[in-house]
Amino acid sequence: MNVKTILVTGANGQLGREMQVIAAAYPAYHFLFVTKEELPIDNEAAVKNYFNQHAVAVCVNCAAYTAVDKAETETDKAYSVNATAAGNLAATCNENGSLFIHISTDYVFDGTAAIPYTEDHPVHPVNAYGASKLKGEELAWQNNPASIIIRTSWVYSSFGSNFVKTMLRVMKERESVNVVSDQQGCPTYAADLAAAIMQIINSANRTAGIYNYANSGVINWYEFATAIKELAGSKCIVHPIPSSQYPTPARRPNYSVLDTSKIQLTFNLTIPAWRSSLAKCMALLMA
Fold first, then answer.
1. Degrees (nearest 5) of the Cα angle 190, 122, 130?
2. How far apart are CA 66 and CA 130, in angstroms?
3. What's the pLDDT score for residue 114?
4. CA distances from 35 to 57, 61, 168, 286 (A)
C-alpha cells in the first residue's frame, strides 16, 4: 500500500498541535510535523532540500507569525514567516506536484463590512499582520495556482496561547474583567479546523481557491468571554467596553464575520456551532 506523506509546518502552534491529535485517526497517512527550528521555511533552499528527502504528497502550512501587535514593529519577521515562507512552500509544492494547503486570516479585510465576508470581497488589511498574511496569499497563488487557501478567525484551542485560556486564567485571578464588545466575528476551534483540513485532503475534490472557515454563529468578544464564564462556572464579572477604551498598537477589524458557505458546499463539510465547540474545548481544559 502506498502511504501518502503529509507535511505539517508550525507543529507547535494551536492548529499544528490539533493536527497531531487528529493524525492518529488517519493511519493511511504518514505525518511529518516540523517546527521552524527543524525546517526554516523562510529559507528556500532548506524547503527544496526537505522535499527532495521526503516524498511529500500534501503540505499543510500552519506556521504563522501571529503576534498582531508586535508585527507593527517586527514587520520583517512577520513578512518572513507569513509571506516569504508561504511562497517558498507553495513553489516547492508546485514543483513536486504536492497539494498545498495554506492557512490565512480574516485580518486581510478591513472590518468595515456589514454582512459576512465572502472569499471574493475586496481585501484591505488595517495592520501589518494582516498585510503580511495577504502577501502570503498572493505569493502562494503566484507560485502555485493549485493552492487551497483557508482564511480563518479568532482561533483557540486547548493548546498554546489564546483568548479562551487567557480568560480562564484572568477569571480565576480577578473579580472583574473588561472585554471589548464592539468587535464582531466568529470563533474557530482549531480541532474543528484540523478535522476540516483532513476531510479536504481525504476528498476526491481538490478544487483550488480561497475558502473561509470558522465555527457557525456571530458574536463579539464580550459575548465570547461571557460564554467562557458561564461554562467555567466563574463568578468573575465581565464588563463590556468599547475598543476605544482598550487601545492596542495594531488596529483590529471591527467586523470580521466570515461567510463559510463555499467551503461547506465544495467539500461537503458540516461546521459545528461555536458554543458547542467551545464547550468541548473547555471540557478538555477543565478536566
1. 45
2. 10
3. 93
4. 19, 11, 28, 28
Q: Is residue 247 part of a domain?
A: no
Residue 36's nearest CA partner among 8, 4, 68, 75 is 8
Cell 463568578 appears where?
235
Catalytic residue among 50, 79, 129, 156: 129
Residue 238 lies in a domain: no
CATH of the domain at 121: 3.40.50.720
Is 107 noted as a catalytic residue in this protein? no
Burial of 174 (0-12, 13-18, 19+ CB in 10 A): exposed
Give the span between the Cα atoms of 218 and 206, in whole angstroms.
Answer: 29
For 27-90, give the secondary structure using H, E and C: CCEEEEEECCCCCCCCCHHHHHHHHHHCCEEEEEECCCCCCCCHHHCCHHHHHHHHHHHHHHHH
Residues 53-78 have a mean pLDDT of: 97
Which domain does 267 fall in, by range?
Answer: 4-161+188-214+257-272
- Per residue in 229-278, pLDDT tens? 999 999 999 999 999 999 999 999 999 999 999 999 999 999 999 999 99
Q: What is the pLDDT of residues 172-226, one digit of tens each?
A: 999 999 999 999 999 999 999 999 999 999 998 899 999 999 999 999 999 999 9
State in Å, rounded, how far the first CA of the chain is from the last one. Answer: 39
Pairing of strands 188-189, 4-9: unpaired
Mean pLDDT of 86-110: 98
Q: How far apart are CA 32 and CA 19, in angstroms?
A: 11
Other CB atoms within 10 A of residue 101 CB? 23
The DSSP bridge pattern shows strands 148-152 and 29-34 to be unpaired
